């Protein structure tokens, strides 16, 4: 990654991180309920019976109500587990799912490891992001796990990044390894995006 792009990403991530940290608990709670409705609508649109998602941290848009509801309805939900080699393992979410602190201090599920290719069988991928731009480019938090996963998939299903409403921006800095997404899901809406080239 060039120094200029790295500096741009670092500055944008710092701004986004600060905005997420100052959000009130009431705003977080309201956005969680709205996000769950949007994610349910996305499932319905694709007729998905198997999805990948992620365990949100306290500052991310809250995916946990959605995951719990999907599991209770009998959907197969795969959750990622970070590996030392930069790849993601996957495990099936359960109603009584236990969590541990992962490699970077982030919450990760406990469960049988299915390996990196397990995600190739889902109907829809729901992934985290720091921001997404109107061309379909996603900017993550800098560890590259989801870029590597998406870049390795021959026939990826639709991929939607979960962000807050103000994190859909005009442009994000991008480098050669960065991967585009099909769309973004915010508490207010589902946005279909052109796949960036």
Outline the fold blueprint:
Blueprint: H1 3-21, H2 25-46, E1 50-52, H3 64-72, E2 76-82, E3 88-92, E4 99-101, E5 107-109, E6 124-128, E7 131-133, E8 138-139, H4 145-152, E9 159-162, E10 168-169, E11 183-185, E12 190-192
Parallel strand pairs: 1-2, 1-6, 6-9, 7-10, 9-11
Antiparallel strand pairs: 2-3, 4-5, 7-8, 11-12
Structural class: alpha/beta
The overall average pLDDT, rounded, is 92
Secondary structure: helix percent: 25-40%
- Kindly report the spatial arrangement of strands forming the biggest sheet: 3-2-1-6-9-11-12
The global form is globular
CATH topology: Rossmann fold
Radius of gyration: 16 Å
Strand percentage: 15-25%
Per CATH, the superfamily is: NagB/RpiA/CoA transferase-like
Order of helical and strand elements: HHEHEEEEEEEHEEEE
**Count of helical stretches:** 4
Describe the largest sheet: 7 strands, mixed
- Find the count of extended strands (DSSP E, 2+ residues): 12
CATH architecture: 3-Layer(aba) Sandwich
Q: What kind of oligomer do you see?
A: single chain
What does it look like?
Helix content is 29%, strand content 22%. The protein is an alpha/beta fold and 197 residues long. It has one domain: Rossmann fold (3-Layer(aba) Sandwich), CATH 3.40.50. The strands form 3 sheets. A 7-stranded mixed beta sheet has the order 3-2-1-6-9-11-12. It has a 3-stranded mixed beta sheet with strand order 8-7-10, covered by helices on one side. Strand 4 (99-101) and strand 5 form a beta hairpin. Helix 2 (25-46) crosses helix 3 (64-72). It starts with a helix and ends in a 5-residue tail after the last strand. 35% of the residues are buried. It comes from Microbacterium sediminicola.
């Amino acid at each position: 990654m060039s120094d200029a792009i790295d500096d741009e990403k670092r500055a944008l991530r710092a701004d986004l991180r600060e905005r997420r940290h100052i959000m009130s608990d009431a705003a977080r709670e309201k956005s969680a309920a709205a996000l769950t409705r949007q994610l349910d609508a996305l499932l319905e649109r694709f007729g998905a019976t198997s999805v990948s998602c992620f365990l949100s941290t306290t500052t991310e848009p809250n995916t946990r109500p959605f995951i719990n509801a999907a599991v209770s309805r009998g959907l197969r939900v795969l959750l990622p587990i970070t590996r030392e080699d930069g790849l993601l393992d996957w495990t099936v979410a359960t109603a009584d799912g236990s969590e541990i602190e992962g490699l970077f201090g982030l919450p990760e599920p406990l469960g049988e490891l299915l390996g990196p290719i397990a995600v190739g069988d889902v109907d829809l991928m729901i992934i985290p992001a720091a921001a997404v731009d109107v061309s379909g480019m996603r900017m993550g938090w800098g560890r590259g796990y989801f870029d590597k996963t998406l870049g390795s998939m021959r026939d990826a299903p639709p991929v939607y990044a979960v962000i807050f409403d103000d994190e859909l921006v005009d442009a994000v800095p991008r480098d050669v390894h960065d991967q585009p997404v099909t769309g973004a899901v915010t508490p207010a809406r589902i946005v279909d995006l052109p796949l960036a080239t």
